[in-house]
Design goal:
This protein is an alpha/beta fold. It is built from 9 helices and 10 strands. Strands 1, 2, 3, 4, 5, 6, 7, 8, 9 and 10 form a 10-stranded mixed beta sheet that branches. Helix 6 packs antiparallel against helix 7. The termini are far apart.
Length: 300
């Protein structure tokens, strides 16, 4: 079995050397979990490309065997992770990446060679770029969310209605960008906050003054709804996550924004106004007292 299968702790790293001349290297970082996780990765039929590697962080693996089709790939490394939480899973892969660029991925996507090359080409053509946000389509080839109409800067502000999906993100990890991580207090599996980890990831990049841009380029296909858009906003831990995010993102205006968010949740029938407001305030308190400010941590 040629695949690298490694039990990793938070501080371990892969030491890989790429020998591709005049070409940026790219790591595709795939978060998966449970014994069936690698079967989902196998079904992705990931293309083999020069200078592209796949790093799979695998939680709750249950000592399941690695499928033969993955075991024989020399462009794939599988990390076993004992920690819970989606953000820990993604960070495990980030900390193991050694390429010029990394692309965040899930285990239920489809990539064409041209789509992966498009990510690399954007960074090659934009040497000042640190953080790129792209587009994805559903299985019918149609765009399933609203995007800006054209390429735009995300560093100083976000277009109206813009929200981040994890597998739209690619990063050139240099300077402070090398310290960019998903906040462990946010995301599925966290004991406190079950959403907004992507928004916090982008917010941290912006606070670190990284060069962040959106590109209207489709880089993958996702056949189902994303976790954050499956109608689970009524989950108290999801509502709390947005309370914490609003505190970090809008330190001067978060009180009014909490009220507006509670009103929207109530108006859409996802949660009664006072229940929503209570959970948003609870999340605000978690953000204030239990979560370290990510961009301050990165600057240390």
């Amino acid at each position: 079995m040629n695949v690298n299968l490694i039990a990793y702790t938070d501080n371990n790293r892969i030491n890989s050397i790429y020998n591709i001349n005049a070409m940026l290297t790219l790591d595709v970082l795939i978060a998966t979990h449970t014994p069936s996780g690698l079967q989902r990765v196998e079904a992705m039929q990931l293309p083999r490309l020069d200078g592209v590697r796949y790093i799979v962080s695998w939680q709750q693996h249950g000592d399941a065997p690695v499928p033969e089709s993955l075991a024989g790939r020399d462009d794939m490394t599988i990390l076993l992770l004992g920690q819970k939480g989606l953000s820990h899973n993604r960070n495990n892969a980030i900390e193991s990446s050694t390429a010029d660029i990394y692309l965040i991925a899930d285990d239920d996507l489809r990539y064409t060679p041209d789509q992966i090359e498009a990510v690399r080409r954007v960074f090659e053509e934009n040497p000042a770029l640190d953080y790129a946000s792209f587009m994805y389509v559903g299985k019918d080839g149609k765009v399933t969310k609203t995007y800006p109409a054209e390429e735009c800067d995300l560093t100083k502000g976000l277009p109206k209605g813009f929200y981040q999906t994890s597998f739209e993100i690619a990063v050139r990890p240099r300077g402070l960008g090398a310290k960019l991580r998903f906040p462990a207090a946010f995301g599925l599996g966290s004991p406190w906050l079950h959403a907004a980890e992507e928004e916090m990831f982008l917010l941290t990049a912006r606070k670190l003054d990284l060069n962040c841009r959106f590109f209207p380029i489709v880089i993958t296909t996702h056949s189902g709804p994303t976790t954050g858009r499956q109608g689970v906003i009524s989950d108290p831990l999801v509502i709390r996550a947005w309370g914490a995010y609003l505190y970090f993102a809008y330190p001067l205006t978060y009180p009014a924004r909490l009220l507006m968010k509670a009103k929207r949740l109530s108006g859409s029938g996802q949660a009664p106004f006072f229940k929503a407001l209570k959970e948003l305030i609870h999340g605000l308190a978690i953000g204030m007292y239990k979560v370290n400010i990510p961009w301050k941590e990165a600057r240390r």
